[in-house]
Design goal:
242 residues; mainly alpha; 5% strand
Length: 242
């Protein structure tokens, strides 16, 4: 390390590992539930039966209605619906644990003052970054989670590509979801949302979501370092992204 051949690797504390294990388990169960629903939809669609848009409570009822007069199809679909109910219960149990952790952690509650940031995203950011002092500049966090664009420059060539997608995939996806909520669902005005809307009109909503997700990562780190809540005005937001 003294010769510069190796870089020091940050060892996270046990609490961060425990929180991350909880979030990974939850994310896996959510994926399994979604896969089960897609499988049920696929089996029914093969016979021209369409469930359509359905929420948690209506999905199973709709599937049972469509297979009521088709016992040969119900034999295949019913076990998947039963498994889906069990998985949903486990997800609900983990969600209660997540909410309890969020309520008991002042830093997580502070993160949640930012628009679009819920308890899952806040806990994931806390567990992934672990120690804000790891980064001398808040802007480095955007690159750490893989939300900055790749760039190649050599001679007359200067090429900018897509985001690097380095770092933690789960945190990156949660920040992207938070950006989507901020741009499409949060009604309250903020300088960050106004900036994202302008960017969406110029470059498209998808690129705007990525850019807002990157800014959210930077802002959350600055909030952590300064011990402040989210700043809604233009000048205050500019200070947090510096």
């Amino acid at each position: 390390m003294q010769c510069g051949w190796y870089k020091e690797v940050r060892v996270k504390d046990l609490d961060s590992h425990a929180v991350r294990a909880l979030l990974v388990s939850r994310a896996l169960l959510v994926k399994i539930k979604r896969d089960l629903e897609n499988q049920v939809r696929g089996l029914l669609k093969n016979l021209g039966l369409v469930i359509g848009p359905a929420k948690m409570n209506t999905f199973a009822l709709r599937a049972e209605e469509l297979t009521e007069e088709r016992p040969e199809l119900a034999v295949a679909v019913t076990p998947l619906l039963t498994a889906r109910v069990a998985i949903a219960q486990q997800i609900a149990d983990l969600d209660r644990m997540v909410m309890k952790l969020a309520r008991n952690n002042a830093q997580v509650r502070q993160f949640m003052t930012a628009p679009g940031i819920g308890p899952v995203t806040a806990l994931c950011f806390l567990a992934t970054i672990d120690d804000p002092r790891r980064f001398k500049r808040s802007r480095s966090v955007g690159a750490y989670v893989g939300l900055t664009t790749r760039r190649y420059a050599s001679g007359e060539i200067d090429w900018t590509g897509r985001i690097s997608k380095c770092g933690d995939k789960m945190l990156r996806s949660y920040l992207y979801e938070a950006a989507n909520v901020l741009l499409t669902r949060v009604a309250k005005w903020s300088a960050l949302k106004a900036w994202g809307i302008r960017l969406a009109k110029r470059s498209g909503l998808r690129k705007a979501k990525v850019a807002v997700a990157r800014k959210l990562a930077v802002i959350l780190h600055r909030m952590w370092v300064d011990g402040t809540n989210f700043k809604w005005s233009s000048k205050e937001t500019a200070d947090q992204t510096a």
